[in-house]
Specification:
alpha+beta, 191 residues, rod-shaped
Length: 191
């Protein structure tokens, strides 16, 4: 990703000057060598970063990027890019990262619960078919096939919260069918 690479290099160029703004002034040649992008790609990345208000250009009279030094040789100002907007939004991005991490964790837990329910339903149906082969379980097997077809893969971005309840319901139905077959529909225990 070009803009991300360029922004990363711009941030790496900051010399921790104690100014109210975070100014950097790397040349295009330097950025081309560091990012592997063409000069045109660098300019395009600048436009994207400026449009997203992540950097602010600070233009010099001659259009070049450079540092301004005082008589003692200390850098007192610079023409290039101001990274202050990136720094100002760090809290917003930290919150967004936390939200994304929580979302990934919730998605993982949902898929784990689906896997548990699926395996339990398949095990109950397998036990029914082995132990009670004459029992009609076609409706449960149809529901299983239909849910397997509708359940997204873990590798997709979808969060299958809606389908989790259906898997839990199928699991309960399969286990209930197995238990009823075991006690032949009576409400008392076998001795």
């Amino acid at each position: 990703n070009g803009p991300r690479s360029v922004l990363s290099e711009l941030v790496a160029c900051w010399g921790e000057q104690e100014w109210e703004r975070l100014l950097v002034w790397p040349s295009n040649d330097y950025l081309v060598n560091r990012t592997g992008l063409s000069e045109r790609g660098i300019r395009k990345a600048f436009r994207v970063l400026i449009d997203q208000q992540l950097i602010v250009p600070k233009e010099s009279p001659n259009g070049k990027r450079y540092a301004v030094k005082d008589l003692a040789g200390e850098i007192v100002d610079a023409f290039g890019f101001d990274l202050t907007p990136v720094y100002a939004r760090r809290g917003e991005w930290a919150e967004r990262l936390i939200e994304q991490k929580q979302g990934r964790e919730a998605r993982k837990r949902t898929f784990d619960e689906i896997t548990i329910a699926r395996r339990a339903a398949q095990e109950a149906l397998g036990s029914l078919s082995r132990e009670y082969p004459d029992l009609d379980r076609s409706d449960l097997e149809d529901r299983l096939r239909e849910l397997l077809a509708r359940t997204p893969l873990r590798s997709t971005k979808a969060t299958p919260i809606d389908i989790l309840d259906e898997w839990k319901s199928l699991r309960s139905a399969c286990e209930e069918a197995y238990y009823r077959a075991g006690y032949a529909g009576t409400q008392c225990r076998h001795s």
